[in-house]
Amino acid sequence: MKRENKTRYAVLGLLSIGEVSGYDINKFIKEHLSFFWKESFGQIYPTLKRLKDNSLIKERVGMPDYRGRKVYSITDKGRDFLTSYLEKTPDDEVIRNELLLKLFLASNCKEETIKSHIENELKRREAITLKHKKINIDHRTQCIKKEDERYWKHCLNFANMYNDMVIKWCKTVIDDLEKGENNE
Amino acid sequence: MKRENKTRYAVLGLLSIGEVSGYDINKFIKEHLSFFWKESFGQIYPTLKRLKDNSLIKERVGMPDYRGRKVYSITDKGRDFLTSYLEKTPDDEVIRNELLLKLFLASNCKEETIKSHIENELKRREAITLKHKKINIDHRTQCIKKEDERYWKHCLNFANMYNDMVIKWCKTVIDDLEKGENNE
DNA sequence: TTGGACATGTAAGCCGTTACATGATTAC
DNA sequence: GTAATCATGTAACGGCTTACATGTCCAA
Fold first, then answer.
1. What is the pLDDT of residues A68-99, one digit of tens each?
2. Which nucleotides on strand C sit less than 7 A from a protein beta carbon?
3. Whose CA is closest to A123, among A158, A171, A156?
4. Which residue in chain B is spatially nearest to A10 when comparing CA positions?
């Protein structure tokens, strides 16, 4: 079985929430979903075209806000297609964690090097946590429809738990590396 | 800047541990590293050829265990290349978590459907935990060289912490979904 | 008036999986 | 003898990123 193009489901899914443009889809994913999904323009625009050709979505030239803007809405056929997708068991995440690869191979570099990678990761994660606390959950949820809110909060919660876990892990690694340094 | 082929670093990295064949590399990744890295034969064999052409590794026909088997070892040049790779800041993980995508879009399907996806994930994770407890850490570490062991244990620990976190998360989602059902 | 955000789209080209092709060896 | 595992490799094909190309609108 061939690898499936998942972009179309993500795009179709976002259109199930409301009528938006390709530009909006990109922005929304970047701002709100980037902790579990990524897309690029090079995928989004061709995907919109294909979905339109298959009558899964409808195109409308966005007036009066015209600026070359086109907005798309999901059709009944599109909604059926999306629903049948959602029923299929999700594929395993494809994991390629470069930080762990480098840690695993760290006997080929200085201990300082790998330590600084871990410290960077820790800082990055702590910054995310801080940002999430500032922007409280209600604010992050403003743009989400009522019926989706419940599911959305679980997604956010996943992100937070993952973040906390990584922070904890980074600290244990750093502690261990420092312990080693003192022994020398 | 072009996207980088990461496979060569993974392959080179494994050869830094010892002289092995393409088949061995595949097996090792599948058995030991699959929680943070994946490769397929279609990438491994061409990569070995390219690394050899660039003198980063050396080929040797594996005698006396001959069965068409070729084994590779890292050269000094290869080791330098690997070290300079390890010094670069790791790229962000590319995340595409289909379970979270489906959860986010779950207002387009029956609640039962998404609930069963989460339950599957929970079962899968619990099975992994069980397996890891059975195969104790010393056994999993047998095949790892002494100098790598310390780093390796941190990688394993990441896997365990992540697993535990996901299990906890799944349970809160399932609880919440069941609470909703009772209210109806 | 100029920079930044809005807005759409294509082309090049590597990346990576899957399927296919082939054959040896070992254990039952 | 036959199934499983060992073992290498290629071809097809779609996936996806990156870079490029083009133009508008708005605010300072």
1. 789 999 999 999 999 999 999 998 876 899 99
2. 6-12, 14-20, 23-25
3. A171
4. B101
